[in-house]
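Suppose a colleague, Dr. K., hands you the sequence of a protein chain of 216 amino acids and asks what its three-dimensional shape might be. Before reaching for any lab equipment, you can write down a predicted structure in token form. Begin with the sequence itself:
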Amino acid sequence: MIQVAPSLLAADFARLGEAVETVNRSEASLIHIDVMDGLFVPNITIGFPVISAINTIARKPLDVHLMITDPGRYVNQVRDAGAHIMNVHWEACTHLDRVVHTIRAAGMKAGVTLNPATPVEFLRDIIAELDLVLLMSVNPGFGGQKFIPNTVDKVRRLRKLIAESGSKAVIEIDGGVDLTTAPALIEAGADVLVAGSYVFGAPDPIKAVSDLIALS
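The predicted structure, expressed as tokens, is then:
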């Protein structure tokens, strides 16, 4: 069954606690939290104190996606804030193997994110060490963008790479996910769908999550 991770980036930040409680009541598997630094991407979002506050009320594991430069500096802070998964960008890590092992040694699951133009083949020598691979299906930095169609083929190539390597990594997709784009992603082999605008822009966010899950 497909898993859904609502992205708090699309929530009303003035009512963030209510958004977390909504996700708690839904069938979602994770809460996706985007951390942006204004350097790696042209936007600034939330930091560790806010993640810690979210963690005090969250009843779903926190999937923390770091869209920041040199994310390996912050492994302990991410862990201490309550993250279950620490997700770093391939493009932001000079020493990715070291970062991945540091994340796992800290007791978190290690995820690696690829930007739309980064080939999945770049993960061949690290894929066996990963718990999750996140494919960006929009360019990172802002919510509400249009889905990039060739992501579907990228999912297929990543699924093949995972099978060949014996990796147990799950495939997560982030960007433009809705009832129109999700079926092809699921068919191609996606395991987790990050959904922001689709969920929090819906009249009934809890039903929106259920409707995505019902596609699988």
